[in-house]
Amino acid sequence: SQTIHQWPATLVQPVGSPLSLECTVEGTSNPNLYWYRQAAGRGLQLLFYSVGIGQISSEVPQNLSASRPQDRQFILSSKKLLLSDSGFYLCAWAQSDYEQYFGPGTRLTVT
Amino acid sequence: AQSVTQLDSHVSVSEGTPVLLRCNYSSSYSPSLFWYVQHPNKGLQLLLKYTSAATLVKGINGFEAEFKKSETSFHLTKPSAHMSDAAEYFCVVRGINDYKLSFGAGTTVTVRA
After folding, report:
1. How would you classify the pairing of strands A44-52 and A32-38?
2. Worst-scoring range by mean pLDDT, A45-49, B43-47, B94-98?
């Protein structure tokens, strides 16, 4: 069966510090991968998606970036965090255009 | 472009009574529709999906939803609420050949003992 992992589970970082969140998927190959952000009291916002290694589509201009160095690994990064980057970050995978399955999420607090 | 509107931001029910969460969709094509549930500080879990097969879709934990094209609705129901159903629920739509999902704003369900 397929599983999706995210780490860390929680993170507290000062403004201006770098960020790296990791997402890995097991039990499937060539999945579509997605990064979402869920700010307090708001819905889900799609940040990035990837249909293959090295292929990244950005949905919202911001100081975040994403990379897919391996087939089942998706990384969300920032060089300098802003207060507004605080939120709950969710990674998801899907096989082609079928339903998406979500990871457990990372709670990021920027202080 | 496709979108969904969840008609209630908050629903409160007593344990053992029915739950109804309303969702209307807008899509130029025959859509794929989903309901997800999110418990506090957890990821989203797929409850059920509609992909142009039977219009009445049964999901996990006793939930079901009915696709009504004439009303452009995809309401989620459960005959008897349980305390563990307290969570946030998202109605989601995806168009044909689209990798992306469009999420509703969410409905928070509270279950009273």
Report:
1. antiparallel
2. B94-98
Q: Are A97 and B94 in contact (CB < 8 Å)?
A: yes
Q: Is B5 exposed, middle or buried (0-12, 13-18, 19+ CB in 10 A)?
A: middle
A87 Cα to chain B: minimum distance (Å): 11
Q: Which residues of B31-45 are buried (b: 16+ CB within 10 A; e: fewer)?
A: bbbbbbbbeeebbbe
CB of B52 less than 8 A from some CB of A: no
Centre a 10 Å sphere on the Cβ of residue A50 and count the other Cβ atoms it contains: 20
Say if residues B31 and B94 touch (Cβ distance below 8 Å): yes
pLDDT of A97 > 70? The answer is: no
Who wins on pLDDT, B54 or A7?
Answer: A7
Put simply, whether B41 touches A (Cβ < 8 Å) is yes
> How far apart are the C-alpha atoms of B78 and B7, rounded to whole Å?
17
